[in-house]
Each structure stands twice: as C-alpha cells, then as structure tokens.
User: What shape does this take?
Amino acid sequence: MIQSLADGILVGAILSLGAIGLTMVMHILRFANFSHAELLSIGAYSALVFDALFSGILPILANKIGPFSMTWALTLSMFCAMGVTGLSAMLIDRFVFKRIREKGDELSMVFASFGVAMIIRNVLGLIFGLKSQLYSNDIVFAVMISSDPMLLIKPDQVFVLLAALLIMLVLHFVLSRTTFGYALRAVAENPSLAEVSGIRLSRVIALVWIIGGCLAAAAGVFYGLNNHINPVIGRDLVLPIFAATIVGGIGSVYGAVLGGFIVGIAANMALLVLPSGYSPAVPFMIILALLLVRPHGLFGEPQT
Assistant: This one.
C-alpha cells in the first residue's frame, strides 16, 4: 500500500503540471481543449532532440547528475523544450483557436481541438516513429527506503517530485505577486471589463498559452524520465489530466494541483484491488461521486 501511495504521488505531480495549463485555458477561453495533453508529447520529444544535440556538441554535458539518470544536457534540454512547447501552444491558438472563436463558438473549438490532437500525434509519429524511446539506457536502481512495509524509490522519482513542486511554487508567486497574476484574474472574471480597464486581452491569452505549454513540456519530460516516450503520450494522459482538472474545479490552479494528486493516488491505489485494465476507471468514479456533492469541483466556482 505504501509503495502504491508513493507511486501515486509521483504520477499526481505530473498530472498536476498538465492540469494547471488546461484549467487556465478552460477558465479564460471557456472551452475544453482536448489537444492540451499533446503538448506533453511535444515537450518530451523536443527535449529528446535537444538532448542529442547538446550531448553531441559538448560530450561533457552527457554526464549524469549525481545518482539520477538526468544529465546536464537533458536539464538544459528541458528548458529549451519548455520554450518550444510554449511557443507551439501560442501558435496553435493564433492560427487555429483564435480564428474559430472569432467566427464560431465554444463547441466548434472543442471539435477543432480533437483535430489538432490527431495532427500533432500523427506528425510526431511520422517524424520519430511509433517505437518507444528512452532518454537514457542506463539502469537506475531503486533505493530501499523501508523493508517493512516494502518501499522502493528511484532517485529520479524524488527529483521529479521536488522539481514539480518547485515549478508549482514559482507559478504560485507569479500568479499571486505579479501584475500578470492580477490581470489574469481580471480577465477570467470579466474579459470585457478587463479590456476596458486597459488590460490587453490578447497578451494575457498568449501568456496563458505559453505558461500552459511550458508546464506541459515539463510534465512530458518528467513522464519520460520514469517511462518510455512515444507519440501516444497525449492520448494516454488526456483523460487523467481532464479528471484532475474537473476534480479540482475548472479555473482553480490550486484545485488542479490537488486534483492531480487525488487522481494519481487513486489510480495507483486501485491497482491493489483491481486488474490494471480497470484502474483508469477509478478516477472517473471519484469525479462522479465528487460532482454529486460539489458540481463545480473542490475549488471551482459557478461559471457565468
């Protein structure tokens, strides 16, 4: 049980990073973006490309950092991947979603997001192939923390959890202590009034996409550190990320964080009593139970 709880916390940290960007977009633009999880794939593969590039240019960067499988090259690659993915998210909005919301409605944007997801997934498969890949072929052994109960943790898992929490902390200060954070809340509450007050709506929307893309890229790299990466990462994670967003409450960053941990822990704890094929249904049982009590999620507010 303790092992499943620890694994669930790790998965929850990754889902939380993905859910934060999704809940921000859903709150600002009022549509369910089913292509958001594909940004994790873009981030994961961008880091793979930059990792090979940096390791080839400066072989010394291919050295591992302490007990982790993470190398200096991959660390730099993660930041580059965050930039690439943030830019990709902004461009997707500018050339697809922006044009649709100017002429259509939220439902049209939802259907368009399915199309964008399929395009990204297939383009990645065409470029990188469908075979799963690893950031490192080195075997990193788990460390026994406790023998009774049995608890094994890999150094990479500790790194991912601490790095994810640090990113969330930085985002908290950005949203609560900066002008952008105040502008974001104003736009979420009343876009028209915020624009009249002097807030550039287009700039806020662009920054929301960039931040969401950066967080998704980090989540994709963290996922790849502990799993194989392949073009269907987004397909596998889109429903858990949506579940985390709904459980936490649409529009609540802190709710997305909590929702991610709840979904991650629930899915892993379910493996103790259910076959692995049935465990993905557990988070949705939690959603149904929660929405019966709190229709807007744990921290969500009624949409107007």
Observations:
- The first strand starts at residue 143 and ends at 147.
- The chain has one domain: 2-232.
- Residues 2-232 form one domain.
- The beta strands are 143-147, 150-153.
